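To the wet lab folks,

You asked to see what we're planning to order before we commit. Fair enough. Below is the target structure as tokens, and below that is the sequence we designed to fit it. If anything looks off to you, flag it before the synthesis order goes out.
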């Protein structure tokens, strides 16, 4: 018998922002303004290595509710964003997330870069929490 454990959603804090900002390997994705990203969390649901990189799929949450699927094929391209329902090619929350990332990264000129940076930051937030829990 297998039991499913509910994954803990970890949202960003000022402490984690400071920790990542002081890390030379992760400071590239730390937002200038944390407030717009505070309601968001990211959970990787699938990941696998292949010869060109790492393919992963994740769910993006806002205020504890899933709002988007995010995927990266691991071949150097940008992330792709989908609706949470199987038949939604675009998430109704994508524009809302874009607005939040523009506020979080005001100096970033490309909205796709700001979204991808925010997803990378939220992934690192989750990893920091896992490190602290061990």
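Sequence we intend to order:
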């Amino acid at each position: 018998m297998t039991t499913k454990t509910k994954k803990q959603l970890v949202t960003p804090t000022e402490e984690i922002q400071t920790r990542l900002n002081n890390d030379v390997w992760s400071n590239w994705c730390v937002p200038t303004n944390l407030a717009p990203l505070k309601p968001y969390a990211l959970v990787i649901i699938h990941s696998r290595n292949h010869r060109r990189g790492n393919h992963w799929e994740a769910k993006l949450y806002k205020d504890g509710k899933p709002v988007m699927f995010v995927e990266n094929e691991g071949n150097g391209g940008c992330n792709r964003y989908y609706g949470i329902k199987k038949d939604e090619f675009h998430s109704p929350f994508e524009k809302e997330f874009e607005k939040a990332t523009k506020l979080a990264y005001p100096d970033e000129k490309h909205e796709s870069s700001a979204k991808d940076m925010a997803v990378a930051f939220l992934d690192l937030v989750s990893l920091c929490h896992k490190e602290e829990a061990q």
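Structural context that might help your review: Residues 1-5 have pLDDT under 50 and may be disordered. Residues 32 and 50 are 33 Å apart (CA to CA).

Thanks,
Computational group
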